């Protein structure tokens, strides 16, 4: 049974990592499943309060980092909330239209279309808003990888020390 829980934890953690790049796969819930499977493997009480507090913080950060980095990346350049929402929609829809590159193209196109729908700017400012969307997305990816790696280290130290 131990092999089953460890195997499921590894699969869920791998899905969380894939979800960092492909927002279609929600990395937060996949990470929660990985932690639950580790708890079923080792026993939830074995981890201690510090582990669970740390994991809770990581999960919260995984959920909010996408929105915050996109919002900051777009609005810092001068984009509106419409551009932020367009970017989020583009991140989800883009990979269905153009696999792999659709994430980047979808985020940029979504931000530009969202900005056009709410107020329209000149071509130069639309390009900057698209760039802000890309910077926000890439910043979010880096942050989420850092959070997932930190959670994995925390789990590893808690299990084997």
UniProtKB/TrEMBL annotation:
Concerning InterPro entries, the annotation shows: DUF456
Q: By its UniProt entry, which Pfam families does this protein fall under?
A: DUF456
Recorded superkingdom: Bacteria
Q: Does the keyword Transmembrane apply?
A: yes
Assigned keywords, A-Z:
Membrane, Transmembrane, Transmembrane helix
**Presence of keyword Transmembrane helix:** yes
Q: Where are the transmembrane segments?
A: 6-25, 32-51, 57-74, 86-114, 134-160
State the name under which the record lists this protein.
Answer: DUF456 domain-containing protein
Q: What is the organism of origin for this protein? A: Natribacillus halophilus
Q: What is the lineage of its organism?
A: Bacteria, Bacillati, Bacillota, Bacilli, Bacillales
């Amino acid at each position: 049974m131990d092999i089953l829980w460890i195997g499921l934890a590894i699969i869920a953690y791998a899905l969380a990592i894939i979800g960092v790049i492909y927002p279609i796969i929600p990395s937060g819930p996949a990470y929660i499943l990985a932690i639950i499977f580790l708890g079923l493997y080792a026993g939830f009480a074995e981890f201690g309060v510090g582990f669970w507090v740390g994991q809770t913080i990581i999960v919260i950060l995984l959920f909010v980092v996408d929105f915050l980095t996109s919002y900051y990346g777009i609005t810092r350049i001068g984009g509106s909330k419409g551009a932020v929402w367009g970017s989020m929609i583009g991140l989800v829809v883009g990979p269905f239209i153009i696999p792999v590159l659709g994430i980047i193209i979808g985020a940029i196109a979504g931000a530009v279309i969202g900005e056009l729908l709410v107020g329209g700017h000149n071509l130069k400012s639309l390009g900057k808003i698209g760039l802000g969307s890309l910077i926000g997305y890439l910043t979010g990816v880096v942050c989420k990888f850092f959070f997932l790696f930190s959670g994995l280290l925390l789990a590893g130290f808690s299990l084997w020390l």
